[in-house]
Amino acid sequence: MAGLPPGEERTEFSSALPDEAEARAALVLALRRQGIGARDVLSAMERVPRRLFLPARHHGLAYEDVVLPIECGQTVSSPTLVASTIQALSLSANHSVLEIGTGSGYQAAVMSHLAARVATLDRFATLTDLAQRRFAALKLQNIFARQADGLEGLKQKGPFDRIVVTAAIEAIPDNWVQQLKPGGILVAPVGQANQPQSLIRFVKTESVMTAETLMPIRTVMLRPGVALKL
Known about the structure:
The chain is an alpha/beta fold. The protein is built from seven helices and nine strands. A seven-stranded mixed sheet has the order 5-4-3-6-7-8-9. Strands 1-2 form a two-stranded antiparallel sheet. The longest helix is centred in the N-terminal third of the chain and has 14 residues, at 20-33.
């Protein structure tokens, strides 16, 4: 696999660590202490092995509440941010979700246990390919992953009940608003590069998008287009 250090591909789907179940349960308790109260979200977080979404050298930190580096110079968000974001989406079993920014695929995997369908886009082909392999290994058949320009959304699969964005944007593109169903929810980091940003929950009515600020956040900006390499 291009871009992976020697040995990473061989250990990507190695067998579970002996104490992994305990580590996942401890993570859920920590998330509850951080204010994550949605039981379905906590259950989904416990079901997904975060370790499988990390390079082998970071497996020992898989259940720490920290941001960790992944391939293509990207990162996987902290479990607290993932849980807070998913909780804000208020997912139901009949929902279709569009995720802008697949990254490792971890957040999409968690959402797949809560929604009917998850479509996830990333500008890096390497990340899309690795995520697809992870979804297949976990037998998650309700996720569709594609390399694409996230700013364009995915009109052919929409409209969506929920849209979630993993990188910051200065303003919500019209494409996303048009691909969100009336009554739908969009959660995205909003702000400028190298400045304080906010995780905002938007709700679409027939005539307006209402907005609620959830928490301060600092993350990378969403970049247009697709990567020609990686």
